[in-house]
């Protein structure tokens, strides 16, 4: 590193569910693109001018022309996008996983390429590349050639499902792969080699890959070659980054990295990580309810031409030296949306389909979000749900809902949502004795309701609140938003990737939703969502 360091990067820089970071610099602007899985729109992007403060700047796959997610499984959809720039255009390659599961089964994982003159678009129509693997990246060499790299998938019983990194030449003008696929790197003894990114420096091609699986054994491996197709030699100090030998680190699961240089020649590594709770699940794992997040580490290059962490060792740090010109800005403790705009803001995402006026309406009742009830929370399509990420282990969310359920198949409310199999919800519905507020738990598709106690409501205009404190969630209801009545305090730590009986890759969302199982036109109006982390 060079210069006098004046600020510190505080990790994670993207808090809450932001996995598989692809970092890119164009001029003086840095971009981070991250996976979105079944959440719509696809591929969230943040920008920064100093690597310290990151601002969301929308989603790249925001038209059904570019992305269709209807019916994709939990933790399917967009896996590990890669954002690059060839000097004239932005390029994005991404996987849309339609089916995944056992190691001995094929994945339905088509990969696509789109490009645009600017990050805002317009993006070209997707070009299909291959379904032979996942985690694609696209590298342009100075001679004008382009190489698609991806994690090859071998579903044959008895074979290594992660045989290594494949490379295939790509002709962007023709929109097709050319020549033959080559297996260029088989990884190390860590295994589960995936997530390739290729860089050039001082006559070397550096291949950065993820290994060890995307949980607590995750790691960053680096190899290099004089040619893009190898042969590659592995870093003598491998792994470059991992948390596996340091269970007490605040940042766990460190892996799946990409590199970037600054205009002054400094280098940084973007990687995913997780912040676990202190408690353990029944399966012995420590849960990371916020999902996999994005962090940055500073790099140096040794005289031997290999990169190393600037602060020594291979463990991720929370505080990292920033570029000299960086100036830290405080992170707001309170976020609020009063639904005054014509569309949902960048913080919001929906499940598997865009927020269209037929079910997500900001115009019929100005200043309110109207959700028209559709499928239940365990459905793989047609859910009337909008959510924003839970991004701290201590947070509170509150809303005001106005609705008139006519029977028990009409309901609306405030949820902590991980996926169709795991969620908690505070809902307003109608029982035999009138309107009720109650809490429901769905844990690995097993239902329990009501948790705690149900409360009779005088009317359907009420305030709802959830307070999340280090894995416990307290759900409360109020008539005026000031005097709160607690219904239940629930162990919410099962809302995580590590839940027993499942395997997930996302994170917990705070969500507003409405359900109508008879299709009679039930609607719920939400006045605001306030989310705060100073609790």
TrEMBL record:
Catalytic machinery residues: 20 (proton acceptor), 194 (proton donor)
Keyword match rRNA processing: no
Domain Beta-xylosidase C-terminal Concanavalin A-like positions: 336-532
Record has ATP-binding as a keyword: no
Pfam families with a match to the protein in the record: GH43_C2 (PF17851), Glyco_hydro_43 (PF04616)
Site residues (Important for catalytic activity, responsible for pKa modulation of the active site Glu and correct orientation of both the proton donor and substrate), renumbered to this chain: 135
Coiled coil: none
GO biological process, one term: carbohydrate metabolic process
Molecular function terms, GO-annotated: hydrolase activity, hydrolyzing O-glycosyl compounds
Chain residue ranges for the region called Disordered: 315-334
Keywords of the record: Glycosidase, Hydrolase
Protein family (similarity comment): Belongs to the glycosyl hydrolase 43 family.
PANTHER family recorded: BETA-XYLOSIDASE (PTHR42812), BETA-XYLOSIDASE-RELATED (PTHR42812:SF12)
Name of the protein in its database record: Xylan 1,4-beta-xylosidase
